[in-house]
Design goal:
two-stranded antiparallel sheet, about 300 residues, single chain, mainly alpha
C-alpha cells in the first residue's frame, strides 16, 4: 500500500508542471525543491511590484550562483527551504499528531494532489514520510505526551513543527492552503537570495559579480504575454533595466541658484581629530584592566544548550 502511494505521488509530481504558464524556468540543474518553488511562485497572482521584484532577485541570484560551486548552491537552497518551513509555525501552536492521522493525510494527498501546485504537493509528501515515522514509533504516546528522553524529545520537536502543516492541509480547501503557503514561498525565495549574497560576500572576496552578464541559471520562456515584466526581454539579454542617465559635465562653471549668494573668502580648516598612538595605548590599558577586588572567576562554565529544532 505504501509503495503504491509513493508511486502515485511521484506520478503526481512529474505531471504537476504547467510549462505553458511558466515564464521563468531553470537553465542549469538546481535542486528539485527550487524548481517546485519557482513553479508555485509563478502560479500565484502577481502584482506589478512582485513581478519586478522576482525578476530583479533572479538576476542577483543568477550572478551569485555563478560564483558558487554546485555543492554550495545546493547547501544554500536546501538549507533555507527547510529552515523556513520548519520555523514558520514555531511558537505559535501546541498541536500534535493523532493516531490514524497518517491515513487521513494519505487520502487527502491522493484526492487533492492533482490540483495542488508543485511545491505544496512536494511539501505534503515529505511531511507524510515524517508523520508515518512518528505515528508508527513504538513510543508514540511518550513523544506525544512529553518526555525527558533526549532522543524522544527531538521527535517531539519534529512533531510540533509539522503538526500545524498537517492540520491546515486536512482542514483547508486547496485555494486556502495555497494562500496559506504563499507568504512562505516569498520568504524562502528572499532567504535564498540573502544567504547566497552573504555567502559570496564572505567567501568570494576575490571575485566580483558581473551585472551585465547573460543569465546562466534561468531563462524566460515565450508565453505570449508582454505584461509579465515590461523590460524583462532586454534584461535577460544582459542589458540594464533602466539606462543610466548621462552624467553632467562638472567642469562647467558652477552658478548658485540664489543670486544673492556670496561665496566665503576663507574656507574652514580641516580638523585632525584622529587619536594618536599614545591615546590608543591609554584606552587599551583601561579596557584590559585587571578585575576589581572581590570579583571571582567562575570555576565551572555553564554547559551549552542544545536548542536546535531537529538534529542533523
Amino acid at each position: 500500500m505504501k509503495t503504491l502511494f509513493f508511486s502515485l505521488a511521484l506520478t503526481l509530481l512529474s505531471s504537476s508542471g504547467f510549462a505553458e504558464e511558466m515564464w521563468v524556468t531553470q537553465k542549469n540543474k538546481l535542486p528539485s525543491e527550487f524548481a517546485y518553488l519557482l513553479e508555485a511562485l509563478q502560479k500565484t497572482e502577481f502584482t506589478a511590484n512582485e513581478k519586478r521584484s522576482l525578476a530583479s532577485t533572479l538576476k542577483e541570484l543568477d550572478a551569485e550562483f555563478t560564483l558558487m560551486t554546485k555543492e554550495e548552491i545546493f547547501l544554500v537552497i536546501k538549507g533555507e527551504i527547510y529552515k523556513s518551513l520548519l520555523t514558520y509555525y514555531r511558537g505559535s501552536s501546541d498541536l500534535s499528531l493523532e493516531i490514524g492521522q497518517h491515513e487521513l493525510l494519505q487520502k487527502a494527498i491522493q484526492e487533492k494532489g492533482p490540483k495542488l501546485n508543485a511545491f505544496a504537493l512536494w511539501l505534503m509528501i515529505a511531511i507524510k514520510t515524517d508523520v508515518d515515522m512518528l505515528v508508527g514509533h513504538p513510543n508514540f504516546s511518550k513523544i506525544k505526551l512529553g518526555t525527558t528522553n533526549k532522543d524522544l524529545l527531538r521527535l517531539k520537536k519534529k512533531m510540533t513543527v509539522i503538526a500545524p502543516w498537517v492540520q491546515n492541509f486536512l482542514s483547508m480547501e486547496i485555494d486556502e492552503f495555497h494562500n496559506e503557503l504563499r507568504p512562505v514561498l516569498w520568504d524562502i525565495f528572499s532567504r535564498i537570495e540573502n544567504s547566497a549574497r552573504l555567502f559570496v560576500l564572505m567567501g568570494r572576496i576575490d571575485k566580483k559579480k558581473n551585472p551585465d552578464a547573460k543569465l546562466a541559471f534561468f531563462v524566460l520562456k515565450d508565453v505570449g504575454s508582454k505584461d509579465v515584466f515590461p523590460e524583462l526581454d532586454n534584461w535577460l539579454k544582459g542589458e540594464a533595466l533602466k539606462k543610466e542617465k548621462p552624467k553632467e559635465d562638472l567642469s562647467k562653471e558652477w552658478k548658485p541658484q540664489d543670486p544673492s549668494y556670496v561665496a566665503p573668502k576663507v574656507l574652514p580648516k580641516p580638523i585632525d581629530d584622529w587619536l594618536d598612538q599614545s591615546e590608543w595605548n591609554s584606552m587599551e590599558k583601561n579596557l584590559l584592566k585587571e578585575p576589581q577586588t572581590g570579583t571571582n572567576t567562575p570555576k565551572v562554565l555553564p554547559k551549552p544548550v542544545d536548542d536546535w529544532i531537529l538534529d542533523d
